[in-house]
Design a protein that fits this description.
Blueprint lengths: L3 H26 L4 E2 L3 E3 L4 E11 L12 E2 L3 E5 L6 E7 L4 E5 L5 E6 L2 E6 L1
Antiparallel strand pairs: 1-9, 2-3, 3-6, 4-5, 5-8, 6-7, 8-9
Length: 120
């Protein structure tokens, strides 16, 4: 028979598992504000997506933001309302797509499968 301490530990473990599962499900079901296409074409060639970066102000001002999370699986930036965010999707051979993303709360690059997006 379980004593009270073990019951409490079991209860909180189950509660944490339920909350974690719910948070993951909500994150996965949200629709991105923007996402980088897997490829881009300039009319002559098709280029695969390489990576993404985030800037506070237009890219030519050169204020690139450092991700909150930077590991082998993911880059993630948490945005706050005081910045003027521009999300840049980079492709091979120097091609890119720039998005102005005022309504995003975070942006991320996921390495497997390779993708990038900004979420509300």
């Amino acid at each position: 028979m379980l004593n009270n301490t073990k019951k409490i530990i079991l209860f909180f473990s189950l509660l944490l598992a339920i909350v974690s599962t719910n948070c993951q499900a909500q994150e996965q079901t949200s629709t991105p504000i923007v996402s980088c296409p897997a490829t881009m074409s300039d009319g002559h060639s098709v280029y695969p997506f390489y990576t993404a970066s985030l800037y506070d102000s237009p890219v030519w001002n050169g204020i690139e933001l450092v991700p909150d999370i930077d590991n082998k699986d993911r880059l993630r930036w948490t945005l706050n309302p005081t910045i003027n965010p521009y999300f840049i999707c980079s492709y091979n051979e120097g091609h890119s797509i720039v998005f102005h993303i005022k309504q995003a709360s975070y942006c991320e690059v996921i390495n497997t499968p390779k993708q990038a997006r900004c979420m509300p």
